[in-house]
Design goal:
By secondary structure, the protein is mainly α. The protein is 75% helix and 0% strand. The protein is elongated and about 55 Å long.
């Protein structure tokens, strides 16, 4: 159950965000940065579960369910906001949103991994 559930979740996440990335509303490179941030935090969660016995799914009051809800809301808003670019950039509103979310996910990964490493060093593990 654990293995299949998380494997299917990872594939579904890649497919959902990848599909958004090949849509006219978001650039693929930006979408894939979101996937990378999500996977980094997921990897941290799975390793921490094995090493310290803590399976933490939520960070900053959000987890995979909240991410999926955000993706659903964003997908519903895409036809309303359209494909317009922001200012003189090559980025849409959705690209900017995804870049912010990606930055948060990568930052959380770095902070959580550093904190876990420090805790393990203090424990001698």
């Amino acid at each position: 159950g654990y293995f299949v559930d998380h494997s299917v979740d990872a594939l579904a996440t890649l497919m959902m965000i990848g599909a958004i990335g090949i849509s006219p509303y978001m650039r693929l490179d930006v979408a894939l940065m979101g996937v990378a941030g999500y996977f980094l935090l997921s990897i941290h969660t799975f390793i921490a579960a094995k090493i310290i016995g803590e399976f933490r799914l939520s960070y900053m009051a959000g987890g995979p369910t909240e991410l999926r809800l955000m993706l659903m809301a964003m997908t519903a808003l895409m036809p309303i906001f359209g494909t317009g670019l922001v200012g003189r950039t090559t980025l849409s509103v959705f690209d900017l949103f995804a870049l912010v979310v990606s930055s948060i996910l990568v930052t959380l990964f770095i902070v959580q991994t550093s904190a876990t490493a420090r805790m393990l060093r203090r424990r001698g593990g």
